[in-house]
């Protein structure tokens, strides 16, 4: 069976869509997730259901506030290992591309190209409904939700919905009481960075 991982031989085919898998377990998971929509593992706190028990275990951390994965560079903690790995890249990636205007550096060339629009004020992506223009296509995509009223991100605790994933993440602080943004001058902490920025202005006066 292990040799199939190297040869990529896929012997188990789905009878409905003909997609094939190297392991019978993979076929079973595919069938339940895609065709039967079976999600047998339910959260006792909020009722959300999951296909695998391990997914339910990770979800429980939303309620328990458990964050077992810590960054060994800055100490920041995360509830999901994948999120920690993504965060860790910020520390190890070499930033070879520097902006000649403000000296800010980036690890990828396309990130620098996108950043330069901050200085050039280039807004090449325009909304066909209201005419508002944006520097990135993704920002235009998010803006469209104002017109469609689409709010795909729902809070698992209270059910409130949001158009942006970032807004949902910020909202979670209401439940967790987490205040990760701390003032370097007086030590006061805030749940949102915008609140910290507003507070910092008081010290500059």
Please outline the major beta sheet: 2 strands, antiparallel
Task: Give the ordered list of helices and strands.
Answer: HEEHEEHHEEHEEHEEHEEHEEH
Strand order within the widest beta sheet: 1-2
Q: What is the number of E strands?
A: 14
> Roughly how many Å apart are the termini?
69 Å
* Radius of gyration, in angstroms, nearest whole number: 23 Å
User: What general outline do the C-alpha atoms trace?
Assistant: globular
Subcellular location: Nucleus
Protein name: Zinc finger protein 112
Pfam families: zf-C2H2
Family: Belongs to the krueppel C2H2-type zinc-finger protein family.
Any key phrases for this structure?
205 residues, alpha+beta, Double Stranded RNA Binding Domain, two-stranded antiparallel sheet, 14% strand, globular, Znf_C2H2_type
Task: Show the helix and strand layout.
Blueprint: H1 3-7, E1 12-13, E2 20-21, H2 24-36, E3 41-42, E4 49-50, H3 53-59, H4 61-64, E5 69-70, E6 77-78, H5 81-92, E7 97-98, E8 105-106, H6 109-120, E9 125-126, E10 133-134, H7 137-148, E11 153-154, E12 161-162, H8 165-176, E13 181-182, E14 189-190, H9 193-204
Antiparallel strand pairs: 1-2, 3-4, 5-6, 7-8, 9-10, 11-12, 13-14
């Amino acid at each position: 069976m292990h040799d199939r991982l190297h040869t990529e031989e896929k012997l188990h085919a789905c009878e409905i869509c003909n997609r094939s898998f190297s392991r019978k377990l993979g076929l079973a998971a595919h069938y339940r997730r895609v065709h039967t929509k079976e999600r047998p593992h339910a959260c006792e706190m909020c009722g959300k259901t999951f296909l695998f028990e391990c997914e339910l275990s990770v979800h429980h951390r939303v309620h328990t506030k458990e964050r077992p994965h810590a960054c060994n560079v800055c100490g920041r903690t995360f509830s999901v290992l994948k999120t920690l790995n993504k965060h860790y890249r910020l520390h190890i990636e070499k930033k070879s591309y520097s902006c000649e205007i403000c000296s800010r550096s980036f690890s990828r060339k396309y990130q620098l190209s996108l950043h330069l629009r901050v200085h050039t004020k280039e807004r090449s992506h325009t909304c066909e409904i209201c005419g508002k223009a944006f520097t990135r296509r993704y920002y235009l995509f998010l803006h469209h939700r104002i017109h469609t009223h689409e709010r795909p991100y729902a809070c698992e605790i209270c059910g409130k919905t949001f158009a942006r994933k970032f807004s949902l993440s910020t909202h979670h602080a209401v439940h967790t009481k987490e205040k990760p943004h701390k003032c370097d001058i007086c030590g006061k902490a805030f749940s949102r960075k915008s609140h910290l920025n507003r507070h910092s202005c008081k010290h500059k006066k």
